[in-house]
TrEMBL record:
The gene is gpmI. It comes from Candidatus Gallimonas intestinigallinarum. It catalyses: (2R)-2-phosphoglycerate = (2R)-3-phosphoglycerate. Its EC number is 5.4.2.12. This is 2,3-bisphosphoglycerate-independent phosphoglycerate mutase. Its cofactor is Mn(2+).
Length: 372
């Protein structure tokens, strides 16, 4: 059962992977590709349970679009203007019947290593009762199937009825944990699409907040794709961040604006331009408030996206880029310092700690970007 990407890679690259997989299956003499489905349906992370239901039903009752083979299904989808990310749930059929469905007591191995987009479909298969944190759970037409369900990594520490192929690595003294030990109060804020990034991921894969770690979630807009609303919820995030900052309660804030990544993934250039403008305005609003309070800002990204919107052949480029990202230290106290040009992500936490006047714990192997 192939969940297609088309977002972190070229939008029509999936057919080549499926063809390569089919060639290997033919060589080995066993196995079948039973379905193809865009990640838009199977790997939603924003509580769009109607999308997940379509993928689940395809996998369990076979009511997807029918195709004779996976590659033909993808070619037909491309011809209809629907790229990998949005491929309709499609069952491969023989003699009019799906070649394979997930049934009672079957074994499932989910090969996705990243948790956030694997959680919803995993919850639908593995949790009984099937209750969702936000939104409304759909009715499983098959009932609970009691699968032997293997997650590649820990998708959610609270999930039951699942096995873990690769248990998570325990990280000691992450930035949030270290600040908590020092009695510092921190704010984590983002809209839904990046909430996990400023909480679960930023804490090294730990769901539980640290002591004095306040989390604020702003709902992402309910639209089919974010080119339809490129500002997303950036203004609401910025306004709430400023509101929280004005309380004077926090020693540190971790904030993520989702727009340039999420709208960049759509490949729609005018929308990406609007997204960048929105983030520019919102960053200024937050930075101005921090500077007014005598604070400092470290502004950066963990990867690019909107910086490249076209592939070499002129087609939309929707994946992350590997271009160097900017790092800007905005601070009255540090306005005359120079930052190293050869930094890595591991250097950000030591830099923040230096700006805060705090020692760097031994577990942090990165080095401050501030040149001495």
């Amino acid at each position: 059962h192939c969940f297609m990407d088309g977002r972190d890679v070229s939008p029509t690259s999936g057919v080549h992977l499926v063809e390569a997989l089919q060639a290997e299956i033919d060589k080995l003499g066993y196995g079948k590709i039973a379905s193809v489905c865009g990640r838009y349906y199977a790997m939603d992370r924003d509580n769009n349970w109607d999308r997940v239901e379509k993928a689940y039903d395809m996998l369990t009752i076979g009511n997807g679009v029918h195709a004779e083979n996976a590659a033909d299904a993808l070619h037909a989808s491309y011809e209809a203007g629907v790229t990998d990310e949005f491929v309709l749930p499609t069952n491969v059929v023989e003699n009019g019947k799906p070649v394979a469905l997930v049934g009672e007591g079957d074994s499932v191995i989910f090969f996705n290593f990243r948790p956030d987009r694997a959680r919803e479909i995993t919850r639908a298969f593995s949790q009984d009762p099937f209750v969702v944190p936000k939104g409304t759970a759909f009715e499983r037409k098959t009932g609970f199937l009691h699968p032997v369900y293997v997650c590649y990594t820990v998708y959610d520490a609270e999930f039951r009825n699942v096995d873990i192929a690769f248990p998570k690595q325990t990280l000691e003294n992450t930035l949030g944990e270290y600040l908590a030990k020092l009695g510092k109060k921190q704010l984590r804020i983002a809209e839904t699409e990046k909430y996990a990034h400023v909480t679960f991921f930023f804490n090294g894969g730990v769901e539980q907040p640290n002591e004095n770690e306040v989390r604020v979630l702003i709902n992402s807009p309910k639209v089919a794709t974010y080119d339809l609303k490129p500002e997303m919820s950036a203004y609401e995030v910025a306004d709430r961040a400023v509101e929280e900052l004005k309380t004077g309660e926090y020693d540190a804030m971790i904030l993520n604006f989702a727009n340039c990544d999420m709208v960049g993934h759509t490949g729609v250039i005018p929308a990406a331009v609007k997204a960048v403008h929105a983030v520019d305005e919102c960053v200024k609003k937050v930075v101005d408030q921090i500077l007014a309070m005598g604070g400092s800002v470290l502004l950066t990204a963990d990867h690019g996206n909107a910086d490249r919107m076209l592939d070499t052949d002129g087609s939309p480029f929707t994946a992350h880029t590997t271009n160097p990202v900017p790092v800007v230290l905005i601070s009255e106290k540090y306005k005359n310092v120079t930052l190293r040009k050869d930094g890595i992500l591991a250097d950000l936490a030591p830099t923040l700690l230096e700006v805060m006047g705090l020692p760097v714990p031994a577990e942090m192997t990165g080095k401050s970007l501030i040149e001495k």
